[in-house]
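Same chain as my last thread, 136 residues:
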Amino acid sequence: MPLCIQEATTRQVRQHLRRLAPVVWWGSVVEVHSVIARLHRESAIASTERDGALARLALLAQGWREILPDDALRSLATTLLDSYSLRAADSLQLAAALVWAQQRPQGKTFLSGDQRLSHAAKSAGFAVTELPRQPR
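reply #2:
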């Protein structure tokens, strides 16, 4: 979100983006679009800000690598639900990260603004960079 809508962490996230090649879960576009749409519905952002955020999201999506859904990822995500206190979408994100890391997360960076997901990623072995969550 901080790459699509200006937040306190936007500068920090841009710095990470310049040095890391982003890899995201296939559903990330839907999740981010959902937040942008909700903020617009709640009048937290104007139509012009929504349009700009969606344009930035489309641009970002062109440059990141997506981990696609498959049976193995779904199975791993359900296993993670038994091991960590995660919601469904978060377990899919962590499972995608583990698939990307080929089940060897040591030394791999996991960037998140979600405390619960960050904790699970750290427990799984990732080097976690946790961004402060922005209230909206």
